[in-house]
Each structure stands twice: as C-alpha cells, then as structure tokens.
Amino acid sequence: MSQSEAMQQAMRELEAAMKAADVWKQEVPQPQAFMSREPFCVDTMSLPQWLRYVLLARLQALIDAGTAFPSPSSIAPAAELYLKEYPTGKRLPLIQALERIDGIMNDA
C-alpha cells in the first residue's frame, strides 16, 4: 500500500471515528478563522472543526497534488488533551486514527 493510500485509509478512519463520537457535524468556520497562526487554530476553531476543515482538507490537497506530507507530526498527543473529557469509547477511536495519521506523516 502506498503512503497516499495508507493516508486515505487513515483519513476515512478519522471521519468514521468523528461521526461515531458525534463531532463530525461542525459549523464551517468563518474565513478569518483559517488565518490563525496558532497550532491547530486553537484561538479560532474547536479541535473537531480543525480536524474536519483544516487537517483533512490539507491532507487531501497534498494527496491530490502528489506532494509529500509534512513531518514531524504530533496531532494525537494534542488531541488527547482536548478530548480528555470525552468518554473512552468515543475518545480512543479518534486518538487511534490520529496516531495512524501521525505515523504515516512521520514515516515520510
């Protein structure tokens, strides 16, 4: 399996985990929210918004362009802090999907 194929599979897993955790349906952030210079746009978006509208969109754009993934990546540890209040059954699939994404980017 190519790196792009592995990433697309991990992205599908993240989407499924977000849907199962009821965090997929997010309001589209205002255009200025995307201008944030903070990691994960923490000052302008919720983590689920960032995952859906920034991370997944940028990863898909990199795949479509045939461009290398950025590395190093450590999204999962940051998400663990944000999601610590979520029930384990909803939190773990999200973290595991993000760990796969981190692993693919870090192997680049």
From TrEMBL:
Organism the protein comes from: Larsenimonas rhizosphaerae
Segments forming a coiled coil: none
Residue ranges of domain YqcC-like in the record: 7-102
SUPFAM superfamilies named in the record: YqcC-like
GO biological process: single-species biofilm formation
InterPro entries the UniProt entry points to: UCP006257, YqcC-like_dom, YqcC-like_sf
Span of the signal peptide: none
Name of this protein: YqcC family protein
